Amino acid sequence: xxxxxxxxxxxxxxxxIEKSIEATDADIDFESMSGILEMSFAxxxxxxxxxxxxxxxxxxxxxxxxxxxxxxxxxxRNTRDDRDLFAVLSECASQQCGESVVIGA
Length: 105
Prior knowledge:
Blueprint: H1 3-23, E1 28-33, E2 36-41, E3 46-52, E4 57-62, E5 65-72, E6 75-78, H2 85-97
Antiparallel strand pairs: 1-2, 2-3, 3-4, 4-5, 5-6
């Protein structure tokens, strides 16, 4: 995957995440800048989603830990346990928000 293709893929993912946050009633604020999406929660915690161009991965930092995702067969999968990016984000956001949150397509 070229750097341009990677950036296009990640831009689409970040946009999907933003749309999901906007569509929820959960108390989540977000800011996106230069390929980094920062979600802020009422308890002061954050989830950071950012692109890692050298490794062609999306990295997520959440209260529960750090996660690396690589694109496999069109799906962003955790490099440790093969879980889907959106499933992990939904779980982390739900834990930090204190209510059920669904993020992603």
